[in-house]
Specification:
By secondary structure, the protein is of the alpha/beta class. It is 36% helix and 21% strand.
Length: 540
């Protein structure tokens, strides 16, 4: 995950995409401690696609939300236990890692269970007035040697399902309770060692690191008794033998699992409900790849995002209200984005956000990459309609001159080529036309409206008026807008024809104009930002 996403608004236009590319490049130069990655929130329109191809710039990665996923917060260094590992190994791993649970896997690495501190505690406090028995979970001699860090002196490595005895009684009393195949722990007492072998002990464990006499070892070999030398005293030896049982004996089956791409908001309640307060992140083969605990979910650091060319929740990425917005750079009105702490925020009334970015390159004595510079030039010419829009400022004109010299091209010719290449929308459906550059605005009463804009060369698009009106109505109904409008802006004539569906009284009032044959004529109106949106928001 990059440190900071730099992204424009939904239905990205050329300024939105170019600004994300340009400002990410600038921030990476002046702030090397963070990584800035350009992003976009939708498909690029034909004009932006042309600019990307013409400039050679790489299209930003598309992101659909900024919400945290399991993979953003989980611990990736996952310790696991095999289902046949002795419990002693599990306990040591948990202690060394300071963790309270350990996933248990099968031979193929897939998850089969989980061992928690509760599982271990229950085993320790389980009360029994009789000898410990391994009848239900046979333990191998090799496992005993491993947990005791001992030595196998005689006999094969085989499983034992007998009872466990620690001999403190007299030799004459040993035969009263012991049975053939039992496990016997005894210290430096040769007579007791021999008696245990005579009684058919399956495993004789000699404690305190005192090697038994050769006669005892020979006798054990003849009777098939395994002999293990433990460096520990009899009490600790017996306790550790109990931890020789395999992990599957006490593990909890069907542990809570999650996918790395799950939203943490969707799994938090489940994690809080299980007693071990954790979930195992698994891949498609059920192999553990991460662990997410309650601690990971309490106060996770949100994703970081830098907004360009917008400052409204309705125009921003899904989940922006839960993200950490680190900066806003915009040339529109102040929106409704809220932050928990002060951040740099620029709302500067120029024709394009790209103008602000090039100015920052100049001030810092830096130059953008050639491909980035072409994208920024395309953005300025797009937003200002080749410097003819009423939003155009002297600063935009100055920056266009700077970019002309740097790129050694004619900006006006470049802009006309761009508009001509992208003005043909004959292959687009009405739905695509009204959605590709639609912006949502909120009213003081909490209602919402939308205004789309399409720039054309000539008036031919209105021949599809009925199709466009139907698409507008679908957009309005789907989102619950009070009205939805479409600006069909002719860059050659310098005016706009407006289509509107829904309660359009505010539109009629704002422009003091009634529709003729369903079209509101707005001569000289070319800018949604400066001429249309402010007039509508004032009325609304």
């Amino acid at each position: 995950m990059p440190h900071v996403y730099v992204t424009g608004h939904k239905n990205p236009d050329t300024d939105s995409v170019a600004s994300a590319i340009g400002y990410a490049e600038f921030k990476n130069l002046v702030d090397p401690e963070n990584e800035y990655a350009p992003a976009r929130l939708g498909d690029v329109n034909p004009q932006t696609a042309w600019a990307l191809e013409k400039s050679g710039a790489k299209s930003p990665k598309r992101i659909r939300h900024i919400m945290l996923r399991v993979k953003d917060v989980m611990a990736r260094d996952v310790a696991v236990a095999h289902k046949n590992d002795p419990l002693r190994n599990v306990g040591l791993t948990m202690a060394q890692r300071n963790i309270s649970q350990l996933p248990v896997v099968d031979d193929d690495g897939s998850l089969v269970g989980i061992i928690t501190e509760r599982n271990l505690a229950r085993m320790y406090v389980r009360e029994s007035r009789g000898a410990s028995s391994f009848k239900d979970s046979p333990v191998s001699v090799g496992a005993m040697v491993e947990v005791l860090e001992g030595e196998l002196l005689a006999g094969p490595d085989r499983g034992s399902d007998g009872q466990l005895w620690v001999i403190s009684m007299g030799v004459d009393s040993m035969g009263k309770s012991m049975k053939e195949g039992d496990i016997v722990v005894v210290g430096d007492r040769p007579e007791a060692q021999r008696r245990a072998i005579e009684l058919g002990a399956g495993v004789l464990i000699v404690s305190n690191g005192v090697r038994p006499e050769e006669e005892v070892l020979q006798m054990a070999g003849e009777r098939g008794t395994g002999v293990v030398l433990s460096p520990l005293d009899s009490y600790v030896t017996s306790r550790l033998i109990q931890l020789s049982v395999p992990s599957w004996e006490i593990m909890s089956e069907r542990p809570l699992t999650v996918h790395p791409d799950d939203f943490i908001t969707d799994i938090t309640e489940q994690v809080m409900e299980v007693h071990y307060r954790a979930a195992i992140a698994v891949d498609e083969n059920m192999v553990p790849i991460g662990v997410v605990t309650r601690t990971n979910l309490l106060n996770p650091r949100p994703r970081r995002i830098l907004l360009v060319d917008h400052a409204e929740i309705g125009q921003s990425v899904k989940g922006v209200e839960k993200a950490e917005v680190v900066e806003i750079l915009d040339h529109h009105h102040v929106g409704d984005i809220e932050t928990s702490s002060p951040i740099p925020a620029t709302f500067d009334p120029v024709g394009s956000t790209a103008t602000l970015i090039v100015e920052r390159f100049k001030t810092a004595g830096l130059r953008p990459e050639v491909s980035t510079a072409k994208m920024l030039l395309a953005a300025i010419l797009s937003d200002t309609v080749i410097l003819n829009s009423p939003t155009t400022t002297d600063r935009d004109r100055e920056i266009v001159k700077v970019l002309e010299e740097f790129l050694d091209l004619d900006a006006e010719a470049f802009g006309r080529e761009m508009f001509e290449a992208s003005s043909d929308v004959s292959d687009l459906s009405g739905e695509q036309i009204v959605n590709r550059d639609a912006k949502e605005y909120g009213t003081s009463s909490g209602d919402r409206v939308s205004v789309s804009q399409i720039e054309t060369v000539g008036p031919g698009l209105l021949e599809r008026k009925d199709e466009l009106v139907a698409a507008l109505e679908s957009l309005r109904a789907e989102n619950g807008y009070v009205f939805s409008a479409l600006m069909v802006t002719d860059i050659t004539q310098g005016g706009t024809q407006l289509l509107c569906v829904g309660d359009c009284s505010a539109v009629h009032h704002a422009f003091d104009s009634q529709p003729r044959e369903g079209v509101i004529e707005l001569p000289g109106v070319m800018s949604r930002k400066k001429q249309v949106a402010p007039a509508l928001l004032t009325i609304l």
